[in-house]
Design a protein that fits this description.
The chain has one domain: 3-Layer(aba) Sandwich (Trna Endonuclease, Chain: A, domain 1), CATH 3.40.1350. It contains 4 helices and 5 strands. The chain has a 5-stranded mixed β-sheet with strand order 1-2-3-4-5. A hairpin with a 5-residue loop joins β1 and β2. The chain is globular and about 45 Å long. InterPro entries: Restrct_endonuc-II-like, tRNA_endonuc-like_dom_sf, UPF0102_YraN-like. GO terms for molecular function: nucleic acid binding. This is UPF0102 protein BGE01nite_33600.
Length: 147
């Protein structure tokens, strides 16, 4: 059912034919994030990557010559602040671990990397709002950045 929802349609549980759980809301947000990133010309390489060292990345994509590691945060309301506010330092470390594992799989290439956050807000009866925060955070320390 998720494929029926686009960025041009208003969000409503009846449109989806169900009352969305938190997990379903997150899946819909990731679907809309991928669609948005592709519309921006990014090449999505992998979704929901789980690294060997407890790392996790929602989306791995190419944006020109830059390899991006993207965290998607979806909310059903703006009442609790911006979705990106939920990307804590602990969550950033998990994403960084996943990114390092991904880079190790590639043989640790010296390519440009970036951490982005895609915010998706799904308010009942409104069009989905999707925005990208490029360079939302960096590697925790310089030794990680140099790989």
């Amino acid at each position: 059912m998720i494929s029926r929802v686009s960025l041009q349609r208003r969000v409503s549980p009846w449109l989806l034919g169900l009352k969305m759980t938190t997990v379903e809301t997150g899946l819909l947000g990731e679907h809309l994030a991928v669609k948005h990133l592709r519309e921006q010309g990014r090449r999505v390489l992998f979704r929901n990557y789980r690294g060997l060292h407890r790392g996790e990345v929602d989306i791995v994509a190419r944006h020109g010559q830059v390899l991006t590691f993207v965290e998607v945060k979806t909310r059903r309301s703006a009442a609790f602040g911006r979705p990106a506010d939920a990307v804590t330092q602990e969550k950033q470390l998990l994403i960084q671990r996943g990114a390092l594992d991904w880079l190790r799989l590639l043989g640790n290439p010296k390519i440009a990397t970036r951490f982005d956050i895609v915010e998706v807000v799904l308010v009942d009866g409104e069009l989905p709002r999707v925005s990208v925060m490029e360079n939302a955070f960096t590697f925790a320390d310089s030794s990680m950045a140099g790989r």
